[in-house]
């Protein structure tokens, strides 16, 4: 278990342990709202613009799929792996991701406000403008990926780790953090919500980098 400099313990995030069964190939035909997809392999399928709102994906692999403007609001992704998915404007608002791995994704403007993420690993790839406002994140690891202007405003984050991850222009306004480990994020750029980092652990170097933003948000004047 990692230790903060003040001696307070930092609980490590529990990573997902996804063991997929033998999968059947997805037969096509398009996603359906409230559809049920169990034990399927979606390989290089273009799901752009399709409506799978409320659908359930259980023991599935999505590999190389296009998700441009795909509507998956309130969908449930359980014990599944997403590898090399790409897309702009994917709607996963109010969705549930539990025991999910997202590997080498290339996404932009993904809407996940109000979503629930539990035991989720995001490894590799780049995600621009990820909207996680008011979402609940528990046991989530962002590893070796690039997050550009992620929005965590109002989110509840518990046991969340950023490991060798670039975090650029993040918004933590009104977020609630518990056992959030930011020490291995490089760079760590926070444009809003530095005053909400109680419950997080950062390095001494990160503290120095964030000092100007912290001073502005707390109304501290700095003069030599």
TrEMBL record:
**Keyword set, alphabetical order:** Repeat
User: Sorted alphabetically, which InterPro entries does this protein's record hold?
Assistant: 5peptide_repeat
UniProt region (Disordered), positions on chain: 1-26
Tagged with keyword Zinc: no
Comp. bias intervals (Basic residues) = 1-13
Q: Which SUPFAM superfamilies match?
A: Pentapeptide repeat-like
This protein's source sits in the domain of life called: Bacteria
Q: Does the keyword Protein transport apply?
A: no
PANTHER family attached to this UniProt entry: THYLAKOID LUMENAL 17.4 KDA PROTEIN, CHLOROPLASTIC (PTHR47485:SF1)
Q: What is this protein called?
A: Pentapeptide repeat-containing protein
Organism of provenance: Streptomyces actuosus
